[in-house]
Amino acid sequence: MCGIIGIVGRAAEVSGALYDGLTVLQHRGQDAAGIATEDNLKLRLHKGNGLVRDVFDVEHMAQLTGTMGIGHCRYPTAGSEGAAEAQPFYVNSPFGLMLAHNGNLTNSEALKREMFLSDLRHINTNSDSEVLLNVLAHELQEASDRYRLDEDAIFRAVAGVHRRCRGAYAAVVMIAGYGLLAFRDPYGIRPLVIGRNAAMGGTEWMVASESVAIDVLGFDLVRDVAPGEAVLIDTQGNFASRQCAEQTTQAPCMFEYVYLARPDSLMDGISVYDSRVKMGEYLAAKFRRTLPNVHPDVVIPVPDSSRPAAMQMAHCLGIPYSEGFVKNRYIGRTFIMPGQAVRRRSVRQKLNAIHQEFRGKNVLLVDDSIVRGTTSQEIVCMAREAGARKVYLASAAPPVRFANVYGIDMPTQEELIGANRTEEEINQVVGADALIYQDLEDLKAAVRSINPAINFFETSCFDGCYVTGDITAEYLSGVANKRGQPGDAEDDHDGDGGGQLDLNLVSSEQEH
Predict the structure, then answer these.
(1) Cα 190 to chain center, whole Å?
(2) Residue 356 has what DSSP assignment?
(3) 33 - beta bridge partners?
């Protein structure tokens, strides 16, 4: 998962708005960040490793001039964690294009070979986002009439992308001298929403991964980009859209609602907060069924994503709710930290128990999910150290048993505590007095209750069913082998990098 944003039609400089938007999408990626703008046919870019606040300073922002731009915060899955893989990516042939991408292409290796042998394009990094950009650039070249772009050519190019690319992708693309293009894969796995602001100088448009960015910047939420759809907004603020995929199925990623997205976001007509409240309601019903003789004294969430579910669970069970852990806001989300050793060490740095909330009590801990088990083991231990008599653990999501290949960092089964264990065996590893998981059908029902129009969800990490239909055992084995190589996203890393580029589209020179 990554965070992407694009703004066009703005009368004022756009870089500050992009920066503010990325800061509220920071939860989607803490590894790297980048902003690209266009100013009088010059594309300006700055990107580097680190949090948004660390990558950009006053000098960088002053150089990112222009009234159209895109931004990205990266969470690495495919590719390495080096600054070269930070986004946006740029190509100047046949048109000046900047792309920011959220998701993961499952056929990127085959596409690389195609582009080298047939399209005569060379990929410089390990990032599948650069692959997606070059596929789009080639399709634009094929669709345009003597290198002249129009609306129809752009939409036909996106149709070509859908024919060739597999996997999950939501993308924003800045086309120099033309406008902003945004599109979503035919399954709508990764989110993408549209915002509009009727400003004094005309209409401003915005696309972003989550509606929270639209809210913070004072835009009005219009709707989601539909699966397989492309939207195109020119520099004057004229809006057009077209369905570019031959077949579509709306199947948003369930893990977005469980954990990834902010609770104040609205995606695919579903309030993330409301869906998590419903998860707590269903989980309380299962707790009553499976542990009728267990009577906790208090319900305590594992902050932050589990809080709505824990509050509703406490309400339904008639048990007091309490905040038992204090979170260090200066430690990032351990789930998206690279390296198991880093994640384990960071749990204790991130959470500290309030001892009086545990001492002498039977405690029900509620977490949003249990992926590798690192956090669960540590918090159960922390609860006991704080004086809890009994520690029960409830997960608002089912056991994570299978690899995710659509942009979430859990691609090998060996890392997953639930991959080859029963729930009782998982509990023995975690060390709780009892453990319950949400049933998958209850999880689907909880989220669907907020928007009954959505019939399918991407739930492969729970059930092993991959909606794109192209994932084989050989593919999963290849992903696992690749992650064992140096430079993969699982390695610990330090350092910073990046640079400022001023890309002159007339001469195609890069000035550093």
Answers:
(1) 7
(2) G
(3) 48, 73
Q: CB of 182 within 8 A of CB of 230? A: yes
Q: Can you give the three-state secondary structure of 85-134, one letter per residue?
A: HCCCEEECCCCCEEEEEEEEECCHHHHHHHHHHHHCCCCCCCCHHHHHHH
Q: Is 226 helix (H, G, I), strand (E, B) or coil?
A: coil
Summarised one tens digit per residue, pLDDT across range 307-333 is 999 999 999 999 999 999 998 877 655
Residues tagged active-site: 2
Going 242 to 244 to 246 to 250, the CA torsion angle's sign is negative
Note the residue count of the chain. 512
Spell out the alpha helix ranges (H) of 185-335: 211-216, 254-255, 272-290, 307-317
> What is the CA angle 152-156-162, rounded to 5?
150
Cβ-in-10-Å burial (0-12, 13-18, 19+) of 146 comes to: exposed
Q: Indicate the SS3 state at residue 505.
A: coil
Residue pLDDT, tens place only, 331-375: 655 554 555 555 556 677 788 999 999 999 999 999 999 998 988
Cβ neighbour number for residue 366 with a 10 Å cutoff: 28
Residue 1: count other Cβ atoms within 10 Å of its Cβ: 28
161 CB-near residues (< 8 Å, 6+ apart): 132, 135, 136, 139, 183, 244
